[in-house]
Structure formats: C-alpha cells, structure tokens
Write a structure and sequence with these properties.
The longest helix has 36 residues. α5 links the parallel β5 and β6. Helices cover 35% and strands 26% of the residues. The N terminus is likely disordered. It folds into two domains: 60 residues; 187 residues, Rossmann fold. One of its GO terms (molecular function) is methyltransferase activity. InterPro entries: Methyltransf_25 (IPR041698), SAM-binding_MTase (IPR053173), SAM-dependent_MTases_sf (IPR029063).
Length: 254
C-alpha cells in the first residue's frame, strides 16, 4: 500500500511539473503570437521591426521608415538623374498645360519643380508631412517665382486637398513609407477626379540588381494587391526607367 501511495505521489509530482511546463510554453506562444499578429482596427498587424522597418505590416508587407529631412541632400544628389531618369518619368506623366497635380511626399521638391513648368496654366500641390520639408518647399517655390506651386502640410492619413480636384497624383519612392497606406489611398481616391490617375514610382523588388534596401523596394504584384483593395486598378505599366516601376492606376469601375 505504501509503495502504491509513493508511486501515486511521484506521478502527481511529474504531472504537476509537466503541467507547469505546458502552461509556460503556451504563455510564451501566446505572447509571441500576440506580438507578431496583433491586429488593429485598420487591418494592420504588428511585429518586431526589421532592418529599416517600423514593425507595422499591411497585407503582408512591412512598412519602411520614412526618410528624414537629414536625407534631403540624398534626394537631390547629382547622380539621381543618371540613376533614375526623372526627366523621362516626367515626360511620360501625360501632363497638360492646365493639369492639376499632387506630388505626395514631395520632400525637397525634386519632382515638384520639374513638373511645375509643364503645367503653366494648372497647379502643382507639393505635399509633405514633415515641417522641415514643408518650409523648404515654400522657400524654394518662392525663390523660383513659381506661382502655380502650392505647398500643403499633409498628415499620416490625409493629403488635405478638396474632393474631385486632381488630374494626377504621384508618389516617387514614397508609397512604401506611408504609415497608413489604406487611409492615404482612400483619401487620394477621394481627391482624384473621376478620370484622374495615380502614378507610383517604386524601386523594383523583382530585380536583384537594384541595390536598394529590401523594404524600400516593391513588386508589381504587391502594389496592385494593395491598391486593388482600395478601389484602384492598374491602367498602365511601363518599364522604361532603369530601376523603378512606372505604374499608373485609375479608379476601378464600380
């Protein structure tokens, strides 16, 4: 009888230890799952940030960190035209003299001040979320005497323009850094005219020879998936740029 009681106690002790181990493992798994898959109301998930990322994920893609005003010199580097052929991109935007255009994430205005002369009877809205860039854009527009450039302070979810205003909105190496891509796309959709277009230039993730950090590159598949979920359809795809996709979207038919 004593032997049976001893065996029973030993089994109970082992069971208790195993139970503690299982509970500990379960808690660790739940914590990890919560860290990796915590879903917000906007459909975003969160994880431990990767190199250059913010730890926020949209449709399987980690959002990259935004370039700071300290990187303004890189935006105007002398090699940019040779590397990315901005002049070719601007020439293929389909601009008319009276086009109303938004440069979203304008930075120091590298594209803004190349587009403005193409729309002398129109308007270019240079939009940025960072005060330093906004101030620089205003100063540069005034110095150039460009009365058709309006500088707008946007925020992380809105471009702060009226409805049904734009013939063209474009983002150059910006979309992958949007903290709220879903909300921004919906706001851009609202600001575009019924036949307005949204142009994205993004470094090609499909090309291993494009020497850009992974989170700062995007594939056509990923871009069309995200924009398709927000009411856009791919209208035109061009491959004439050395390193970037040139993707034109329109509002999808309802």
């Amino acid at each position: 009888m004593r032997l049976l009681l001893a065996i029973a106690k030993r089994i109970s002790g082992l069971y208790f230890i195993l139970l503690l181990l299982c509970l500990s493992a379960c808690n660790a798994c739940q914590a990890q799952e919560q860290e990796q898959k915590q879903v917000s109301a906007g459909g975003y998930t969160f994880k431990t940030p990767g190199p250059g990322g913010i730890g926020k994920v949209y449709m399987g893609r980690e959002i990259a960190g935004i370039i700071s005003p300290a990187g303004g010199a890189w935006l105007e580097r002398e090699s940019r035209e040779e590397q990315d052929k901005a002049s070719i991109a601007v020439a293929n935007m389909g601009l008319r003299p009276n086009s109303v255009v938004a440069d979203i994430g304008a930075g120091v205005g590298y594209y803004t001040f190349r587009v403005a002369p193409k729309v002398p009877d129109g308007k270019v809205y240079a939009i940025d979320v960072q005060e330093e860039f906004v101030a620089a854009l205003k100063e540069r527009a005034a110095a150039r005497g460009l009365t058709n450039v309006n500088v707008v302070k946007g925020d992380s979810q809105r471009i702060n323009l009226p409805e049904n205003l734009l013939d063209l909105a474009f983002m150059v190496d910006v979309y992958h850094e949007l903290e709220y891509p879903q909300e921004m796309l919906q706001d851009i959709y609202r600001a575009l005219k019924p036949d307005g277009e949204l142009l994205l230039l993004e470094y090609r993730a499909e090309d291993p020879n494009v020497q850009v950090k992974e989170l700062h590159k995007m594939s056509v598949e990923q871009i069309t998936q995200e924009l398709g979920a927000n009411g856009f359809e791919l209208h035109r795809q061009e491959d004439f740029l050395p390193r970037q996709h040139f993707l034109v979207f329109r509002k999808a038919a309802k």
